[in-house]
Amino acid sequence: MTMEDTEIEKDLSASEVVEKYKAAAELANSVMLELLEFIQPGQNVVDVCTHGDRLIMEGSAKKFLKLKTNKGIAWPTCISVNNCAGHFSPLPDDPAVILKEGDVVKIDLGVHFDGYISQCAHTIVLGHNPETPITGKVADAICAAYFIGECVQRLLRPGKTNNEITQIIQKICETFHVSPVEGVLSHEVSRNIIDGNNVILQKPAVDQTVEEFKFEINKAYVIDIVISTGEGKTREVDKATRVFKRALDRNYQLKLQTSRAVFSEITQKSPFLPFTMRMLDEKKRKMAITEMMKHDMLDAYPVLFEKEGSTIVQFKFTVLMLANFTTRLNNFNLPLVTSEFSIDGVPEVQAILALSMKRKKKSNKKKKGKANPNAMEVEGEEEDEE
């Protein structure tokens, strides 16, 4: 760890920090839009993942030129299909997964500059006519995820709590007869930390609880919304884990020279943030990762699946809670959907959606009302929260 990495951390009150978050989001959004154009039926998933990572590395090399190494991929491109919940980012020599027309495809990626992270994820139905509404359970899941996102960005305001968000997630999923996926957490993020201790639990479970906390200004969050048409219970199956992160609190003197060489490569390329095995020496990586995992030197992100016949959708975005307003940094056009269910008769949801978008009035010219789903910035007003 360099002196640069141990300096006193700056928060969002520093304009240069906000600039780096926004630059990361700008590149992440650009790469997502390129992938949405690039991805087609008949493609091998690994080729899409590799293309996404290449776009991030090429794009990051053109910005913040004084940063030679601490920029680029904050979360490797993952392409998870249908009942796969996430983390699928295979190697070229893994069994091919070929995309088909009608697949529900989740694209998940992240970018950072100087350790300031923006992550985003989006879901499409591959090959679907954009002028024809998606219907059925997948449409219900997309609608639920959309309204969850709209409520979350209004509840991310000083004094509100993480548990309030968890509760509204349950209510919206009940309304659309879908399930939040268990084990999904939305994290506070900060410099070089993608999984901060302050978290929002998507679905309460007997074996998973989190400490309640109140939201504060000058904090950043990555909101991860993962909704299933099934029960929302996932498990590992036959797909090998390919995404890892260094466990900074655990050290071990590796025995194999191959492992030491790969560990040095990880330390140089991605010392703090998640990485894919694709970035490592292809002749050494599998043996080296095996030894590191044996000695708990890495945290793994396993590939998880819901039961066959279920479908999972995912939407993820980064939010900055600034002094006077909250900014959502990632947003993309949703597929056209039609659901038989509605939030019109759900007063709890309606009350949140009716919250003013401002916390500090800046102009009398701006109309109040529902958020534009394509807007980049979301603002809220303290005086009329309730």
From TrEMBL:
Disordered: annotated span: 358-386
Compositional bias annotation for Basic residues: 358-370
Residues covered by the Peptidase M24 domain: 19-198
Recorded superkingdom: Eukaryota
Family annotation (Pfam families): Peptidase_M24
Family: Belongs to the peptidase M24 family.
Protein name: Peptidase M24 domain-containing protein
